[in-house]
Amino acid sequence: MDHNETIRREFTHQAESFGKPGLTLSSQEYLAWMVDILPLNPEFRVLDVATGTGHLSRAIAPHVSQVVAIDMTPKMLEKAKEEAAKAGLGNIIFEEGDAAALPYQDNSFDMVVSRLAIHHFEKPQLQLREMIRVCKTDHAVGIIDLLSPSDQSVIETYNRLERMRDASHTLALTKDQLAEAMEAAGLSISGMDSRDIQVDFGLWAEMTATDPHTKGEISKELEQELRGGAKTGMRPFMQDGKLKFLHTWCVAIGIKK
Ligand SMILES: C[S@@+](CC[C@H](N)C(=O)[O-])C[C@H]1O[C@@H](n2cnc3c(N)ncnc32)[C@H](O)[C@@H]1O
Question: What's the structural domain count of the chain?
Fold first, then answer.
């Protein structure tokens, strides 16, 4: 199956789950952390690439003049429009399109952001170059994503488990690889801030409707690690009788040269 079809299939399934409470991606605390770091300005027109159901767009909208939010999965955009209307936000425009061929002119946005999407791209250089192309020179591109652990010995296992849960996951970059990819695409890194995020295993697997057999296979590897078995890079732990693990999220700001 073509990767774009995999993306649309996965996110058509996931669209309803994106608004559920308790998920890391809807956490207001983490969104506030991101908004605080992004160099927003009330006069800015900002592009949010792969907006999904628009969590980041809604967090940014009160701080800027307009957000243009683009995604390739119609069902995600449908939810995004509903949520923006519920929140009474009239300055977000939602558009359907591919991040690898953004339907905008060169230098047309004051800032470009993208959250939790790089690890779904097959060749992130393509999408990064597009984000940079449509951003004004000397302005910021903010990339927020899940990172792979820096320990080389667990990167393969870590990404294999993520792909078992969600077939549209390609590869999470390490912090150094993300910086290198952004620099290679034409940005000068002005800041990178990362933090560990606790994830509830049950909610994580429920969100993607991962089938019970696969869910069991993933949890088996995490439980083996808890008993001293091979490291997975997921850093599992038990809390209040629940299996949890850690993700690392990074907010990286690059300035278009
Ligand atoms: C994990 S969701 C993240 C959504 C949102 N940015 C957030 O942080 O809540 C990934 C989104 O990327 C979108 N996506 C993946 N590849 C894309 C592409 N090439 N062009 C546009 N959207 C894409 C999917 O449709 C999905 O909505």
Answer: 1
> Residues with Cβ < 8 Å from 200, sequence gap 6 or more?
22, 242, 243, 244
When pLDDT is averaged across residues 62-78 and rounded to a whole number, the result is: 98
Between the CA of 233 and the centroid of ligand 1 the distance, in Å, is: 24
| Distance, C-alpha 77 to centroid of its chain | 15
Whether residue 227 is contained in a domain is answered as: no
pTM (whole model) above 0.85: yes
Distance in Å, CA 186 to ligand 1 centroid = 22
Confidence check: pLDDT of 20 > 90: no
Looking at residue 183, which CATH number applies to its domain?
3.40.50.150
Q: Is residue 67 part of a domain?
A: yes
Residue 35 in domain: yes
Pocket of ligand 1 (CB under 6 A): 7, 11, 25, 50-52, 55-56, 71-73, 76, 98-100, 115-117, 120
Amino acid at 188: S
Range of the domain at 94: 3-153+166-199+246-256
Q: Which atom of ligand 1 is nearest to the CA of 73?
A: 25
